[in-house]
Amino acid sequence: MSCPTFKVSVGIPVFGLGFTSNNQLILGGGGGASRSGVKNKLASYKIDIRRKDLEEDATFDFAATEDAPMCLDVHPNGPYVVAGVNGSEQDIKDGKNNNCRTFKILEDKLELEKAVNTLESKKAEDYQRVVRFNESGSLVATGTTDGRVQVFKYPDFESVSPAITVSQDDEVLDVDINLENEKLTCVLRDGLKLINLRGKNVGQVVQTISSATVIKKGTAHFRAFRYGRGFTKDFGFAVVNGVTKPAAYIVKYDAYSLDQVKVVKVGNKPITAFAISQDGAILAFASADLSITLLDALSFKVCCSFVLNDHDPNTIGRLLLVSKRLTDSPSHALLSALTDAY
Asked: Hey, what CATH topology would domain 5-339 get?
């Protein structure tokens, strides 16, 4: 089953995007600190479904010496977005890289409210790879390429615990906070790590799940993890990509014990991006073959899928908007980005 879609050129490589509670589109991207002529910015857009177009409401341009936003997450209820943006190379060397920044989304501008540091590394190539609000927006978690995770109270950015180094030689690929706000699950290639957010063991890794428990024969890597909600509140979902034998799997876990419930092969190409709808009913993933698939989160049946089979060298960044209304809930409008690396 195909999905109705439309494409819009936005003029920059896109590294992160999301929707506000009133269906405004927020995206971040750019050419980075080393590519002149391509701005690094956050932008907000109104989506005109009838005209199949985007109307830019506001932008925030970062300094030419700063990097592009490499990740972002939009507050689930309020007009706020948190983005990971490295400062200048000199700021990084001086230990003044306040890379995690929160903005208020106004009608005609994006207003910087606060910036804090989440990176220990002083290497310009390290950055904050992921940021994630909890379901209520009262907590925000970050993960970095130098193997650190951190959870803050929002909006004051008070640390729930000191930053936690979960790996000395691997980057954090994904993070998510459970619905009870008691646990943080972080994703490394070789394993999931469960971290306590309450009690005497706050900030400590209390459980590790190896990727070898999913694929018994051959090597596999974790790529993403999301806790369910609504229809799927009792489950968590992980993406695992086979390495020895290329394939993509979604693993269903018990949300409380992280016991494995089910493993489903969903493709032959690695999954590169993964999302769950706000009501927990739909899983969406993008694959390395430029396909995007929407699944029913309970049955794992394909709701719709399509392949991006064109590649326009004149377009630096293109957005693909997927509007599939399986119910009357706007949470079934899912969005993915195709970033052309030129």
From this structure: Methylamine Dehydrogenase; Chain H (2.130.10)
Q: What is the mean pLDDT of the chain?
A: 89
In the structure, what pLDDT confidence band is assigned to residue 340 with cuts at 50, 70 and 90? very low
Q: What is the largest CA-CA distance in the chain?
A: 56
Burial of 3 by CB count in 10 Å (0-12 exposed, 13-18 middle, 19+ buried)?
A: middle
Tell which residue, 96, 97, 101, 67, has the closest CA to residue 84: 101
**SS3 of 91, please?**
helix
Q: How far apart are CA 64 and CA 184, in angstroms?
A: 35
pLDDT the model gives residue 295: 93
Collapse the DSSP code of 204 into the 3-class scheme (helix H, G, I; strand E, B; otherwise coil) and give the result: coil
pLDDT at 312: 47
Residues with Cβ < 8 Å from 34, sequence gap 6 or more?
Answer: none
pLDDT at position 207 over 50: yes
User: Can the peptide bond before residue 155 be classed as cis, meaning omega within 30 degrees of 0?
Assistant: yes
Closest CA to 252 of 233, 268, 270: 233
SS3 assignment, position 213: helix
Residue 189: exposure state from Cβ atoms within 10 A (0-12, 13-18, ≥19): middle
Query: Which amino acid is it at 107?
Result: E
Return the closest-CA partner of residue 285 out of 275, 300, 296: 275
**Contacts within 8 Å (CB) and 24+ apart, 91-94:** 92/119, 92/122, 92/123, 92/124, 93/122
**8 Å CB contact between 324 and 49:** no
